[in-house]
Structure formats: C-alpha cells, structure tokens
User: Fold this.
Amino acid sequence: MHGQKDQDELVAEHKKVEEALRKSEEQARQLAQENSIMAEIGRIISSTFNLEEVYEHFTEELNQLIPLDRTTFTIINPGNSTISYAYVSGIEIPEYRAGTVIPLAGSTTEKAAGTKQGLIIEVEDKNEVDLQFPAFSPVFKAGIRSVIAIPLISRDQVIAVLTLQSMKRNAYTDRDLRIAKRVGNQIAGAIANAQLYGRLKETEESLRRSEGKFRDLFDSAPVGYHECDAEGRITLVNRKELAMLGYSA
Assistant:
C-alpha cells in the first residue's frame, strides 16, 4: 500500500513540476514576444517626427499583444478644454473621426487624464455610460464594451490619451494594462517631440511668410531703398533705386 501511495505521490509531484515548467516556458515566450514587439514599436515611433506616418504601423504591432477592435489617440487642448482626435483606427464611428474636436468633459480621456495612471473601463449599461461618460455614448452604441485608457505624460502634464477598445466584455486583463502603460511611456515623448517639431515648423513658415512680405514691400516701395553691411558695401537694392541710379541689380 505504502509503495503504491509513494508512487502516486511521485507521479503527482512530477506532473506539478511539468505544469510549472510549462507555465514558465509560456511566460518566457510571451515576455520575449512582448519585448520584441515593444522594441519594434520603439523603432517605429522614433523613425520620424510626423507621427501620422507611423500610427497605422504602430497599431498593427500593438494588436499582436492586445486584442483591438478600435484604437484612438486624443490630444488634449488645455486652452479651451477640448480634445482632438489625432488618429482613429478600427470600427468607424461617424461622430468621432480623425480631426474631430469635442469637449474634454464627460469623456474617457478626461477620466484617464485625471488618474495619470491608466485604467481599464468596462461599460455594460447605457444609463451608466450616459451618467459617467456621456461623450462615450456613440462608441457604446457601436458595440464597444471594454476600454484601456492610457494618459501620455510629458513634463508631468497629460498631453494625450491612448485608448484601446474591444467589443468583448471583460476583454482586458492587468497584463494588457501593464503592456499598454509600457507603450504609453514610449510614445509620450515621441508625441511631445512631434508637437514641438510641429510648432517649430509653424514658426518657420510664419517667419518665411513675414520675410516674403517684407521683401515684397521693400522691392515695390515707391522710394529708393538699399541695405549695406558693416563695411559700407551695398548688399540689397530695391527696384525704385535701381531705376533712379540706372544700375542693374
């Protein structure tokens, strides 16, 4: 009897060890895949300042780790308490396309920005949606039931929110939230840099236009003008002065 019992216990222990080893190997495989895809996401988002060029590729990579029926990037406009949809993929919702601007209040973006942590939101009841997230109502009507909302933070300020959305109930786990936070940490800096780059380009374009207007005014002035350098050499002459002096440029 004791021999059989000892043998049964050894078999049971052996099965436990095999199961623990299998789980360990599966976790290692998942982690390796996660790190590989995270590295690719990092490469994608750092490849250009124009994030519109990489949103789609980034979403395709993320979808290998987290199930997605819809993805959005919303940019927070603190000056007027609105949000702008910078990118939308997946299920089309006419009310919320790329470029749409809506009030911040009553949105999942507001909720995520308030926590600065990221959260999983499960929505099952329309009345609950209307009460807590009225701006989410069109998304709920489209069938979305699970949301991960990740605030993207730069210099301690929430500048945008990434949302991952699924039509399945209870679609997301703590692991999904952890991965989404890792992604958020990567892209927050990229979005901040892209915004800075965009503002610099706007400033350059504004200066270029201003310089162009100045040149036009200078050249078409009804009186003669010229510019000289520090040594007294003429470096620029307008058309009126050239006509007055009889010289070519």
Summary: DSSP finds seven helices and eight strands in the chain. The mean pLDDT is 83. The chain has two domains: 25-199, 209-245.
